[in-house]
Amino acid sequence: MKLQDSLKKQIATLPVYETGKPIEYVAREFGLDPDGILKMASNENPLGPSPKAVEAVQKHLGGLNYYPDGGCYELKQELAKVRNVKPSQLVVGNGSNEILEFIPQCFVEEGDNAVFGAQSFIVYKLATIFAGGECRSVAMPNLRYDLDAMLDAVDEKTKIVFMANPNNPTGCVVPQDEVSNFVRALPDHVIFCYDEAYTEFQEQEVDLLPLINEGRNVICLRTFSKIYGLAGLRIGYSYSSEELAGYINRVREPFNVNTLAQVGAIAALDDAEFVNESRRSNRAGMKQLSEGLEELGLEHFSEGANFVMAKVPDAAGTFVSLQKKGIIVRPNVGYGLPDWLRITIGKPEQNQRLLDELKKLFR
Q1: Which of 12, 154, 157, 223 is the least crowded, having the fewest Cβ atoms under 10 Å away?
Q2: Bond from prior residue into 166 cis (ω within 30 degrees of 0)
């Protein structure tokens, strides 16, 4: 018997998630100095990590011989205050990505399906396939969610509807009333998984806590990877009803969140100055990139989050050309957008360096 004959059938066809190219890879491939490479591919915070988080992490380096708090008690206490929920409504994960994987494991069986936008975060698809479910990928005309079409895709076998708002990778934003009306239109047996990874960059955040308090099957997810700058620590969380959180916590592995991630996240929650500066810098950078792309005559989309989408001639070639100049952006072939590049917003000088290289290519 061959090993593949013993393999679960969903694993045989499961795509591999491709991350943004690390700086070290590009340096080796093109013979570049890593210190001169600019990474604008993975939507990381160009300002670095929260200074308060760094200080907290440094203070706890001497305790790495001990297992972390498996229940994330202190972090849950702080998150409960911030989100105005009970600690028992929270799940903490090794990045919010891990929790996205837990949810289908809890609720999706073979024959069930999950609904999501065709150009929304690919982990929704991967997690559904891994659980043995069917993916119902709904077209997103003009890079936006079609909420009516998503509702039409829901049936008696739909277990989960996923939505990221702002969406990754397109950056579109769905306003409060449209999200709330959409959730209320879902059948009672459907769980609405609402990914808030980029919500802190918004002027006005969509608030679904009232729907949770109404008893709706809503799970909201947040991450410390984006505005708090803690992507390297891998920590995120969800908040929902106590019942939903209880089920998800059953599949969470013991000690899934390390000590440094927990103490860093606690400190970052108290770093309002850093968050506000990150938000201000992001708004200014989005304006700078949008105006620069406009000047070049390149179609672009920059409604929300901390990145812009740009439609460029020969996107695959442009991606390589920029790497040769020490700039890493993100192609979107896997999302069915082969002509578009996703560009993380950087500091002013980083944004200008990217625009200068694009001018050389397209002028």
Answers
A1: 12
A2: yes
The dihedral sign for the CA sequence 241, 243, 244, 247: positive
Per-residue HEC secondary structure of 309-322 comes to EEECCCHHHHHHHH
Selected from 3.40.1190.20, 3.40.640.10, 3.40.50.1170, 3.40.50.1000, the CATH number assigned to the domain covering 51-269 reads 3.40.640.10
Compute the distance between CA of residue 207 and CA of residue 74 in angstroms, rounded to an integer.
Answer: 24
Q: Which two tokens stand for residue 159?
A: 């277990």
Phi, psi of 105 (to 5 degrees): -60, -35
Compute the average pLDDT of residues 276-286.
97
pLDDT in tens, 170-186: 999 999 999 999 999 99
**Residue 75 CA neighbour count, 13 Å, CB half:** 27
Checking if the pLDDT of 220 tops 80, the result is yes
At CA 36, angle to CA 31 and CA 39, rounded to 5? Answer: 95
Q: What pLDDT, on a 0 to 100 scale, did the predictor assign at position 7?
A: 83
CATH number of 3-48+273-362: 3.90.1150.10
Q: Report the SS3 class of residue 170.
A: coil
Instruction: Give the Cα separation of 138 and 115 in Å (integer).
Output: 7
Q: What integer is the mean pLDDT of 76-85?
A: 98
For residues 292-299, average pLDDT = 96
- Going by C-beta distance under 8 Å and a sequence separation of 6 or more, which residues neighbour residue 198? 43, 164, 166, 168, 226, 304, 305, 306
Any idea how long the chain is? 363
By C-alpha distance, which of 338, 319, 314 is closest to 330? 319
Is the pTM value of this prediction over 0.85? yes
Look at residue 197 and give its three-state secondary structure. Answer: coil
Q: Are 343 and 354 in contact, with CB atoms under 8 Å apart?
A: yes
Domain boundaries in the chain? Answer: 3-48+273-362, 51-269
> What is the predicted pLDDT for the residue at 18?
74
Taking the C-alpha atoms of residue 334 and residue 316, their distance in angstroms, rounded to an integer, is 12
